């Protein structure tokens, strides 16, 4: 119990720091002025950066930049491609999935740490892709329409699926969650509990897939609206509080990486079954409600 309290305290402290960083990001956006000599209204910031989840934006991205700059990976290994890094991420995710099957909480926490290494590699492959294509390494943009972009998405899906499926198997075996213990008094109740657990994990996986599709859709929409050509109007839209709020909400819940962060926290606290139970309906309401709000906002700013 004491260790759980320490973990929760550390998590609250981390999210408080993320909130402070978000406020600093908002102030940075407010300082933007129109510049006719640039095609982007963001100085070293992109729409994707604002909508990216906290862990990737504030932890993994700086780490990947520091790692590449210190080791000079792309210079020392000119044949290294972003796809190689993506493949390595799948391998690490597979190892994490195997480790998380353990009945020991400390070992499952090691699996969480391993999956965070996969998250780091996912950020690193984007950096390697930008360097190899000559894009600015400090601006987080997706290189769409390329084989690497497709490979990255497939590798992410495989890694997420392996880990979530492994946690499902482990949850079936351990039946630690009190939400399912009460249903396990006899074989029929145990069968219902297993079906309920499978339903909840499947719905969580579906939420992640929907979040991925919607998040990419609105990144494209905001990119086309704000980043294709800088004008006084687009800068004013960018600086509006509502625009930041919409993008910030996608950062906080409306993307698969943030959902996975919540899931990893649940695994760390040994609460994965309870977590997927709690979001199996509310999560869909949040995603589609946010999508509805974003569509209304997009329609309003396009008319403007």
How does the SSE layout of this entry go?
Elements: H1 2-30, H2 47-51, H3 54-71, H4 73-76, H5 82-99, H6 105-132, H7 147-174, H8 178-181, H9 187-226, H10 232-239, H11 241-252, H12 256-268, H13 272-279, H14 282-303
Transmembrane segments: 196-216, 248-269, 281-298
Keywords: Membrane, Transmembrane, Transmembrane helix
Protein name: Ceramide phosphoethanolamine synthase
Structure description:
- The chain is mainly alpha-helical.
- It has one domain: Four Helix Bundle (Hemerythrin (Met), subunit A), CATH 1.20.120.
- It is built from 14 helices and no strands.
- Helix 3 packs across helix 6, helix 7 runs antiparallel to helix 9 and helix 9 packs antiparallel against helix 12.
- The longest helix has 40 residues.
- The N and C termini lie far apart (54 Å).
- The model has no long low-confidence stretch (mean pLDDT 86).
- It comes from Oppiella nova.
- Keywords: Membrane, Transmembrane, Transmembrane helix.
- This is Ceramide phosphoethanolamine synthase.
Core attributes:
membrane, single chain, 14 helices, transmembrane helix, 78% helix, CDP-OH_PTrfase_TM_dom, transmembrane, Four Helix Bundle (Hemerythrin (Met), subunit A), 304 residues, mainly alpha, Ceramide phosphoethanolamine synthase, globular
Large-scale geometry: globular
Q: Helical segment tally?
A: 14
Number of strands: 0
What distance lies between the first and last C-alpha atoms, to the nearest angstrom? Answer: 54 Å
The percentage of residues in β strands lies in: under 5%
Low-confidence stretches: none
The helix fraction, in percent, is over 70%
CATH class: Mainly Alpha
Query: What name does CATH use for the topology?
Result: Four Helix Bundle (Hemerythrin (Met), subunit A)
Q: Helices and strands: which structural class? A: mainly alpha
Please state the CA-atom Rg, rounded to the nearest Å.
21 Å
């Amino acid at each position: 119990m004491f260790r759980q309290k320490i973990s929760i305290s550390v998590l609250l402290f981390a999210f408080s720091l993320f909130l402070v960083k978000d406020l600093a990001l908002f102030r940075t956006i407010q300082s933007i002025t129109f510049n006719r000599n640039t095609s982007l209204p963001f100085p070293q910031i992109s729409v994707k950066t604002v909508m990216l989840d906290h862990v990737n934006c504030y932890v993994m991205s700086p780490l990947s930049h520091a790692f590449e700059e210190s080791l000079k990976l792309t210079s020392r290994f000119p044949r290294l491609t972003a796809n190689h890094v993506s493949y390595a991420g799948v391998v690490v995710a597979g190892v994490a999935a195997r480790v998380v099957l353990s009945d020991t909480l400390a070992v499952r926490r090691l699996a969480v740490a391993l999956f965070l290494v996969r998250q780091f590699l996912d950020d690193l492959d984007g950096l390697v892709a930008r360097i190899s294509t000559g894009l600015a390494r400090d601006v987080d943009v997706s290189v769409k329409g390329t084989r690497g972009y497709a490979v990255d998405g497939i590798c992410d899906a495989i890694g997420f699926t392996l880990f979530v499926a492994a946690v499902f198997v482990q949850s079936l075996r351990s039946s630690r969650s009190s939400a399912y213990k009460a249903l396990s008094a006899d074989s029929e109740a145990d069968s219902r509990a297993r079906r309920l657990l499978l339903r909840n994990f499947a719905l969580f996986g579906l939420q992640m897939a929907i979040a991925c599709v919607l998040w990419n859709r609105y990144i494209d929409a905001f990119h086309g609206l704000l980043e294709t050509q800088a004008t006084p109007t687009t800068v004013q839209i960018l600086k509006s509080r509502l625009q930041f709020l919409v993008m910030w909400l996608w950062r906080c819940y409306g993307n698969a990486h943030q959902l996975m962060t919540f899931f990893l926290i649940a695994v760390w606290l040994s609460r994965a079954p309870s977590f997927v139970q709690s979001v199996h309906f509310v999560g869909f309401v949040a995603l589609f409600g946010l999508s509805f709000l974003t569509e209304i906002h997009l329609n309003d700013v396009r008319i403007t």
